[in-house]
Structure formats: structure tokens, C-alpha cells
Amino acid sequence: MSQPQTDDPLQLVAGELNAIGQRLSYLGSVLQTQAAAQARAAAPQQEAAPGQPAAPPAPAAGEAELPPYPRRAAAEPRRRRPDLEPSRVLAWVGAGITLLGVVFLLVLAVQQDWLGPVARIGGGAALAALLIAAGWWVHQKAAEQRIGGIALATTGFAALFLDVVAATALYRFLPVAAGLGVGLLATFGGLVLADRWRAQSLAVGVVLGSAICAPMITSRPTALLIGFLVLLQIAATPIQVRRAWRGLAVVAGIPAVLAALIGTAWSLGYPSNALIVAIFAASVLGVVLAAITAGARPDADRTNIGLLVAAPTPAFLAGPLLLERVEATATGAGTALLLGAIWGVGRYLPAFADWLSGRFLIATGALAMVAAAQATASALDSSSWATALLFEALVLALAGYLLRRGGILLGAGIYAFAGFWIAIGNEAPVGGMLWFDEGVGVPGLVAGLLITGVAAALPAAGVAIGAIRRLPESLPIWAGALVAALYGTASAIMAACLLVSESHDAFLVGHVLITLCWVLAAIAMLLRGVRLKHLRIAGMVLTAVSLAKLLLFDLATLDGFGRVVAFLCAGLILLAAGVGYARLLGREARSA
């Protein structure tokens, strides 16, 4: 005997409590009704007119009528899924078996050498036409036989595609372009029929069958194959937009992306300019068709965003792998401009204000930033990636502040994060500040200044537009920005000192200046933190860090005169800061 589930006793108790509450509510209504009836009986009764029955007493004002006794609602019967109806299952299983029979017939005709190739192709076409005609007749005969007609028509179109494959790839009666053209005409006819019948299953079957049979005709990924699949997607777009068929949108869009990806891998071993052009054209058209679909059907956000993300993926891969630097940069920049134009039109043109959904525009902006990053990586050497990403992060931070868009600031933060860690490995290494080897030159100075600028600009812009809260709600963001600013300041100071003189003395002077700058920053935070607790805490932490560097690093690294200068300057600054901080505290106390 199986044990009851854990939730069953709880559900029983909840049901009983609910029933008890309904009964108490009913008893209370009954008592109120009886009390009102007794009050009316004590009052003088009006006599009824002769020959007419006495009317029942009307309820007094504010009195509620006797409610019906509450009963438990009967559980609704579970509805069956329409896709799992026996008629549908039998019809589609029969269609699959029939299609296999057609395949076996063609194979057997070739093996046994029945008739000739022309008769085989003609017989296959006749069988396909017969199946489509039978599907039309069954569909028009009765409404309950609609699924059978759709299954017959789908089987007929699949048999027609197989016949075209045999005529093109097996017997060479048709050139490849002509075979694809016939397949495209058959697909267009199937889509028109599916639109007339309002049958998404027929449209999906026709497009999927055509997309599967097309590679059999070309036998390898070619520009002609990619072009055929793109035309297939274009032909299906008006119907799936009008009928809101998400399944058709996916089945029509994914084959072109897969063909472009396979074509990218194929081009690594067998380069072809036409194939490369087809890959990028498919990506651009895929983005445009995804935007059109999203504008016409904003209710299908997930499908539209999936198609948008998938469409430029082959171009992102093909650019760095197959093209030279200038061409890869141009294609990446062009993709970024296209995606940015769609984002800008959807955001700022009043005529298209409600054209695209917010989530779709967010995905478009994110892809535009990915394309811009790819163009940057293609245009520059790896030694300059950090500087370029940090500069782009600074520009995006300014754009986010001016346009009041938190999404742009998020992209700027991603650029800044990537640029910071790349700079630690190239332009501004940690080892360059610990040991004197050689200066990092102008790139190190520029990278340090950019790190400091981005670390200051991003949180400030976020607070100005309301995307980032002030302390302490966003403490990790401010702490990360402070660490980045300190590191960027130290890198810039050390690079500037070594640019003046690439000597050990310049290295020591740089460390003295770094310590003094950190002490000054800590004092500024303390003075500003008289009224702001968290700035005061940050200033104390930075003061402790500066003193730790002074005692642990500078004391062991600097020579006699540098050590004296560092300790004297730091001590005098701290004394002056202590006096000024005491005056501020006294002033605040008197004002309070």
C-alpha cells in the first residue's frame, strides 16, 4: 500500500477549515433573517386586498436576503491536449509511414531497374500530385476530416521534394540552380495552401521538408544553398507574421543560420569568396527579418529575440576567421551600425515608439556592443585592446549619462571590466609597480588615466540618472570603482615618472608620489565624510592602506633620502588633516 503524499493532510485540513467557515457564514445569515422576521411580526400587518393572495413581506432596508447554502465547486474535467487526440496521432503516423513507403518505392525502383529514370521521376511527381489532390478533397469534404487532409497534403509535398532531389542529385536531369528553383516554387505553393487552410502544421512541414532536402541537392555548403534558405525564410515571413505562427518563424529562420555556420567551417578548408558574401548577407537579412517580425508581432518576444541573437552569430565567427583585418573590421562595424540603427529607431523616433518591445531593444543594444567589441579586436593588436575598450567604456558612460539609459552604462561597465583586466596583463602590469624593470611608456600612462577616468565616471553617471543608488545600497560598486581608481592612479604616476627618466631613482620617486596621492585621497574622503558615514569609513580604510604601504613597502624599498621625504610629507599631511578634521567636527557640533 502506497504511502500518502506529504501535502495530502495539509490539503484536507485546509479544505475542512474552508467548509467550516462557509457554514458559519451561512448560519449567521440565517440568524439575521430570523431576527428581521420577528421584528416585522411585532409591527401591525397590512391586510391584503380581497381576492388576492397576500404578498410575502419585503425585506427591510439594509437587510440581506437569505443566501443559498454554499456548496463545493465540482472539479472541472481535465481537458485533453489537441495535439494528442487519437485522430491527429493516427493521421501523422500514417503520413510518416506513407512517406517511408514512397522512399522505399524509389529505392526499390532503382535497385530492380523498374522502368526508366524519366518514368520514375514522372511517377514520383504524379504520386505527389495525387497525395496533394487527395488532401484537398478530404479537407474540403468535412470539417472533422481537416487533420487528415493536412496530413495527406504534407506527405504529398514531402514526396515532391524527394522527387526533385532524385531528378537533380541522382539522375542529373536538372542543374542545381533549377532543382532549388523547383523546390522553392513547391515550398511557396505549400505555404499559400497552408495560409488558405490556416494550418501551421502544413506550413512547418513544407518548410522543414524543403530545408532538409536542399542540402541533398547541393551536396555541400555553397552560396547557392545559403541563398535558397534565406529566400525560404523571406517567403515564410509574411505568412508567419500574419498568422502569428511562432513555430513557422523558428523552422524558417534556423536552417539559414545553421547553413551559414557550416559554411564558415567549410570555408576554413575550402575558401570561397561567394560563400563568405552569402554568410554575411544571410546574417544581415536575418537581423532585418527578426526586427520586422518583432515589430509586427511584439507578443512573441522570446522567439524574436532568439532569432535576433542567432542571425549575426555566423558573421561574428566568419569575420575574424575568414577575412583580413580591414575587411573584418568593416564587417564588424557595419553589423554594429545596423544593430545600433535598429535600437535608435525603436527608442527615439516617435513614429516607431511602440514598434519594438523593450526586451527586444535591450537584446539589440547588447548585440551592437558585441559587434563593436569584435570590430575593435579586429582593428587593433592585442597590446592595444585594453586602451581601446577603456576609451569606449568612457564614451559609453558619457552617452549613458546624456541619453539617461542604464543599459548603456551596463555595457560601459562590461567594457571597463574587460579593459581593466586586459590592461593588468599588458599596458599596466602589477609587476611594473613592484619591481623596476623598464617603463611601460605612453600606453601605460594612457591606460592608467583611462582606468581612473572610467572608475570615476561610471558611478557618477549611474547616480545622476538613478541607475545606481548611493551608499550603502550599492557598496560593492563603489568599492570596486575605488580600487580601480587607486590602481589606475598608481599606474599613471609610475608610467609618467619612468617616462621622464627610466632609472631606479625615478621608480622610487614614483612610489613616493603614489603614497602621497593615496594619503591625499584618504584625507579628502575623511573631510567629505564628516556628514557621510560610509565615506568616512572608506577614508579610514584608505588611510590604513596608505600607512601599510608606507611602512611595509616604502620603508624596505626606498633609500635614505626618499624614505625621509616620504615619511616627512606623509606625516605633515596627516597632521594638517587631523587639525582640519578637528575644526570641522567642532563646527558641526556648534551648528548642531
Automatic annotation (TrEMBL):
InterPro entries for the chain: DUF2339_TM
Record protein name field: DUF2339 domain-containing protein
Keywords recorded for this protein, A-Z: Membrane, Transmembrane, Transmembrane helix
Species name: Saccharopolyspora griseoalba
PANTHER family, sorted: BLL2549 PROTEIN
Any Pfam family matching the protein: DUF2339
Transmembrane parts of this sequence: 89-111, 117-138, 150-170, 176-194, 201-217, 223-241, 248-268, 274-293, 305-323, 329-348, 360-379, 385-403, 408-424, 444-468, 475-501, 507-527, 539-558, 564-586
Composition skew (Low complexity), residue ranges: 38-52
Region (Disordered): 38-68
